[in-house]
Amino acid sequence: MGRGGKQKDREVVERRCIATGEVGSTTGMIRFVVGPDSQVVPDLAGKLPGRGIWVSANRAALDLAVKKRAFARGAKQQVTVPEGLVDAVEAGLARRVVDLLSLARKAGLAVAGYEKVRGWLQTGEAVVLLQAADGSERGKTKLRLSEEDGDYFDCMTANELGLSFGRDHAIHAALCSGGLTTRVVEDASRLSGLRGSIGATGLGKDDGIA
């Protein structure tokens, strides 16, 4: 188990982004499927049945996929792309990160609040640092986590972070190693890509199908 709860020997599955043509790990991409009504559906959990269509997890790639009608090519059939698909993907990812953080908190893998987070950073227990995008920059600079020690994200708002910890808002949060932490890192990376925040990944085999 590596830093951030990542398994170093974890099998890397690669796909090709239907929008950019770039090949990369599926952990940095969004999977879509076509429903029975021929409508494109985001499969954020990666569990829906059907032919997978992959797009790099960043807003530019998703916008391009819609504009170029790449979903139809990837599905090899006529499809309907719902209005506001990109915004729906972003909102869905935000909900997933909030829910996963909440589960991590209940499992004792996550804490929030300046003093608790600072304590974990000082002891080396923290492998992920999350700070609210709309928090005070002065306050956020007092807490640091190097790339060698873990992952950093500023893709969530104070309200979203607070929701994960049962409070109105939170500026600082941290996670220690664990399976849930791995899932938080993956979804937070995707969310960062859509929101253009630190921690963003934009990856993009096999004609985007799986």
Describe this structure in words.
It is a single chain. With 210 residues, the chain is α+β, with helices and mostly antiparallel strands. Helices cover 36% and strands 16% of the residues. It has seven helices and nine strands; from the N terminus they run βββββαααβαβαβαβα. It has helices at residues 59-67, 70-75, 85-106, 114-123, 137-140, 158-164, 179-195; strands at 14-16, 23-25, 29-34, 40-42, 53-56, 110-112, 128-131, 151-153, 172-175. The protein has a four-stranded mixed beta sheet with strand order 6-9-7-8, with helices on both faces. A three-stranded antiparallel beta sheet has the order 4-3-5. The chain has a two-stranded antiparallel sheet with strand order 1-2. Strand 3 (29-34) and strand 4 form a beta hairpin. Helix 3 crosses helix 6. Residues 1-9 and 199-209 have low confidence and may be disordered.
Question: Any key phrases for this structure?
Answer:
210 residues; alpha+beta; 4-stranded mixed sheet; 3-stranded antiparallel sheet; disordered N terminus; disordered C terminus
Q: Can you count the helices?
A: 7
Low-confidence stretches: 1-9, 199-209
The first-to-last residue Cα distance is 27 Å
How many beta-strand segments? Answer: 9
State the order of secondary-structure elements, H for helix, E for strand: EEEEEHHHEHEHEHEH
Write out the strand line-up for the largest beta sheet, numbering strands in chain order. Answer: 6-9-7-8
Major sheet description: 4 strands, mixed
Shape: elongated
Radius of gyration: 18 Å
